Each structure stands twice: as structure tokens, then as C-alpha cells.
Amino acid sequence: MHQKPDGDAMGSALGLYHFLKGLNHDVTVISPTNWADFLQWMPGTRQVINFEMNKEKSLKILGEAQVIFCLDFNIFHRTKHLAIHLANAAAVKILIDHHQQPDADSFTYGISDTGKSSTCEMIYDFIVASGHDNSINTDIATCLYTGVMTDTGSFRFPSTTASVHRMIARLKETGFEHDQVHNHIYDNFLENRLRFIGFALTSRMEVLYEYNTALMYITKQDLQKYEIKTGDTEGLVNYLLTIQGIKFGAIVIDRDEERKWSFRSKGSFDVNQFARMHFEGGGHANASGGRSSHSIDQTVRDFKEVLKQYKNQLQ
Ligand code: 5GP
Ligand code: MN
What we know:
binds manganese (II) ion; inorganic pyrophosphatase (n-terminal core); Diaminopimelate Epimerase, Chain A, domain 1; 40% helix
């Protein structure tokens, strides 16, 4: 999975993990980095190895693996410091992903299907196509539901096809409790996070009506003051798109090693291209991310400068 795994990365990896375990395979899930606390409840998370905390063990497993499933990313550098080891691993590498512009040469087999809502949906398809859909149990269902739910904005984005709804119906037949998944992911934060969001909306948001764009920036001091952890800022960018007429939302957060951008759009404005062109990033047409090595103030200025080129597209 990619670094700082989200619900889809963790859900697809753990869904596949439970499925393959059920077929008596020897399976390990490795995350390139740590993950948000709100994913900790998922069945199997305690068995996931954090590469940054457990380099030796991870490298041993990578070295011995026959098959490596690469989930929810399609270019090795999305796995940060794991990338070089993935490249060097002798195993068969299978890509299952739904982002744009895969680095196909890095993988032995696989698919990056941008028509799919989530990597979890693709794991479901993989299980069904393997003829083992009877083995889908509540653990597999819970993990796969989590990723589809988070990647579709709770089943609202255009990627939520009829097939997605059919898949959810099939998962529900296992008896897993979907309301508990929503509670774990969306209703399980500390008070400080909600106060932080209030502060950010009041003091760190700028609406550029000329461009139908809303921008938010979060400084290091803000993160420290509100004791913000990995995962606490997830979803913040979506508030920007709730303003009437806003088609493009961008947030930049001053992380330790870089300024990390998240971009979201509604309609035809392609934030994957925008992130690739200007902020060393990528993703999907309506949801992408990128980075800058400039200061927070400078990268905000850079953003406003490049935005000028898109005035027509955004109007
Ligand atoms: P988020 O804003 O939630 O971090 O990411 C939104 C989407 O863009 C996710 O699908 C994520 O995988 C992708 N993404 C985020 N950052 C980057 C990046 O730096 N490079 C690429 N290629 N994709 C990214
Ligand atoms: Mn995904």
C-alpha cells in the first residue's frame, strides 16, 4: 500500500490478507509508514508491519516473498523509503489500483483501472473472479466496505456505480455491521480535532471567488497547538467544496519534511493534471495530492500564481 495509508489502502490490503489467509497462504501486510488511529480498529490491523518501525523484518519478508501485491498505488515512489526495496525485490509484483498513469514497467502483472471506485472494489472483483466469493466473511466484508465507503465519500462521488451498490449488497449478506464502520471512521475523534477544524475554517481559509476556488493552509504551529496527529486532517479539504459555486478546493499542510497539498474538484477541472504540472503529485481527476519544498507562505503564493492560468476553466 502507499505511504500514510487511507481507508482504501488499508482496507484493500487487509481484505486481500483475510481472503488469502482463508486459502492457507502465508501472508504479511506491510505499510510503508504509520497510519491514522481511525484505522486501528480494522480486523487484522495489529498484524500489519510498519516498515519505518520494523525495517529488518520487512526486508526479510520482502526478500522471501514469491508474490507482492501492490495495492492502491501505481508507482513505487508512493511507498516512500520502501520504493527502492520494492524495485529490488525478486518476487512477482501484481498491481491492483485505480489511479491514473501507472508506471506499468515496474509490475509483472496488473491493472490500474480509473473506472473503479476504489482498490477495495477491485479486490472484491478479484475474489469473485477467482471463484471464491463464498469465502467472503465478515472480516473481508468489513475491510472492503471501509475502502469503498471512504473513497466514494460515503457513496456520493460519481464513481459510485451500480456495481458498487451490488457489491455492497453482497457484502451485507455476510452480516457485517456497516453502521459500526461509519462510527469507527467518522465519529471517533477527540475534542481537539473538532476545535481545530473550527479554527481552520475561521482563520486559515481563503475563498477566491474569481476562480471558484477555496484554499486552506495549516502551519506547523497550528498542528502543535491543537495536538493534531496523522489522520486528524483527513477530510478537511472536503469542507471547501461545500461552499456554493466552489469547484476547486486546495489545502496545504506544513508537515515535517515537506508542504503536503491535497486537491479536490467538482466537475471537469482535472486536479490530477494540476498536481502533476505544479506540485510533483498526482491521483485522480477529482482528488489528488502533491508537495512542495518551499515554505508554507511561498507555496501558497505559488498556488495563487499558477491558478491564474486556470481562470477560464474554473469559471
Ligand atoms: P489525499 O489528498 O487524500 O492525500 O490524496 C488524494 C488522492 O491523491 C489519493 O488517491 C492519493 O493516493 C493521491 N495522492 C496524494 N498525494 C499524492 C502524490 O504526492 N502523488 C500521487 N501520484 N498521488 C497522490
Ligand atoms: Mn484508493
